[in-house]
Amino acid sequence: MNILGLGGSIHDYSACLVRDGEVRCMMEEERLTRVKHCLGLGGKVFRCRAADYCLQAEGLDAGALDLVVGNDLIDPVYYMKYADSIQLINHHLAHAASGFYPSSFPSAAVLVADGRGSFTGFPAERETVTYYFGNGSELSEIKKVSGTDTLDFGAAHDSESGLTDADMSNSVGGFYERVTTEIGFGLLQEGKTMGLSPYGTARHTDAFGSFYSMDDEGNFRQTLDQVKELRMYIRRTLEAAEDPEKFQAKADLAYAVQYHMERILVKACRYLYNVTGSRNLCLAGGVFLNSVANYEILRQTPFEHIFVQPAAGDAGTAIGSALYGYHVLGGRARTAVNIPFSPYQGKSYGPDECAKAAGAFADRIERVEAADVSMKTAELLAEGHIVGWFQGRSEIGPRALGNRSILADPRQAAMKDTINTRIKHREHFRPFAPAVLEERQADFFDLGCPSYYMLLVPPFLPGKGEETAAVCHEDRTGRVQTVSRGLNPRFHELLVHFESLTGTPVLLNTSFNDNGEPIVETPHDAVSCFLRIDLDYLVLNGTIYKKRKEGGAGREKSGEPPSGHAGSEAWPS
């Protein structure tokens, strides 16, 4: 069976192709439009380019599809070309399927939490948290929490209400979102709040506890009045802070919402464990891009094994929709494939495509000869150079996992500020991830399981944060990527060489993009970005390039303007 899954809602559109139960290709629309989250594109998303990309990668046309499945929150413009054939399923169900089916668990508890999901059948009521149990190919709903969406409720347009179109009651994701926007970050920038929180203090944690309730039965409650009170509390706090104190005031607010987010999710998972008795847990929905909270769930609940797939937000519902189509709508049994789940689901680009991309900029880049590209790259990194690393199939989700990455030496403490300022053009407090050899992870981190997708943030072991200061966050933690030889042999080899030169099996890894633009997808994207930002070298599928000392600094030979879009930033890459 060939099944196309479409994902997203009013942002983060995506497509996934499943063939005979195996995820064969997945692509996020933003990587092709070059507009972060596809915000502001309106009707232009009707092209559904990600679907064409997946079909072409597998050598298929639309006539070869047995099913097209999406979730019922996708803007209908996105699936216009499949309107006659698409089957729509519940949004949270698509999230749950995206978390459970790619896992290695025969059965598992499944928790979905986001800002808002499908309508629940009542006026302006939408799902916010849903508890499931997965067993074999079945996903059974245990319980659902829903809230009132002011976008569909007249109160949002009443100037006396103090509410906005974006407010939701009883929404864990909405709680975090409100704090994020009130402290000055934009839409879908909750990752900045997570990155800022370690700089804060517990000054507001008691006050924040009055803005919601969470019982032992999994019921999160936050009324619209409490949302309004939260908003007013934050505004008063920031208005009272003098300019030199603004940063600390915002950090203290970020600390408070992060503290309570962790408390809420831990209680939710304890309830789910009590109901299911399972030792396995799958997490899905944009809330679980909060990798700090994920680690606390692992640490503070009885669950022994946790799986969060790398595209946990709305883009990942394409995977869930396609696999639900195969196992439930198609009636096919679930078998173990892609274990552990590979995040590298983009298509491959061959030598000709890479050579063509480099050739378009031949007056501005030149090849660096190397007998062993991996060893030469390790040497460049050990010398302090910053390298763009483009290899193989692109990874899904907002975090670069070693195929579309910017890499650097983590031993240099100043490297964090250098990359934030010189390369990524972003706030000074934003952290970078440590990519560590799987064989050496236990020597650096207090973490007893792999973190292949950068979705867990454990503490460094004593002394190891100092050894890799550029990737050690303010609270002595790191958003770990466990680098496996099986999942990514080329990146693993690079780390092995770097360790042989330096004694340190860790690299600084961040996404290959400038601030506000999507991660690069094509060789052309990679070369263009390399020339726009202040990288030292580019490794393009086994060839090293550097910038020519002389040559035009203008546009590429085609005359096209540089790609990119100064849009919103997701959970930090």
UniProtKB/TrEMBL annotation:
Q: Which Gene3D superfamilies does this one have? A: 3.30.420.40, Carbamoyltransferase, C-terminal domain (3.90.870.20)
Identify the residues that the record assigns to the Carbamoyltransferase C-terminal domain, covering every copy: 378-547
Domain Carbamoyltransferase, by residue range, is 82-323
Designated name of the protein:
Carbamoyltransferase
Q: Which SUPFAM superfamilies match?
A: Actin-like ATPase domain
Q: Which Pfam families does the record match to this protein? A: Carbam_trans_C, Carbam_trans_N
Could you say which protein family the record assigns here? Belongs to the NodU/CmcH family.
Domain of life of the source: Bacteria
Q: Which GO terms describe its molecular function?
A: transferase activity
Q: Which UniProt keywords apply?
A: Transferase
> Known InterPro entries for this protein?
ATPase_NBD (IPR043129), Carbam_trans_C (IPR031730), Carbam_trans_C_sf (IPR038152), Carbtransf_dom (IPR003696), NodU/CmcH_Carbamoyltrnsfr (IPR051338)
Basic and acidic residues bias locations: 550-559
| Renumbered residue ranges of the record's region Disordered | 549-573
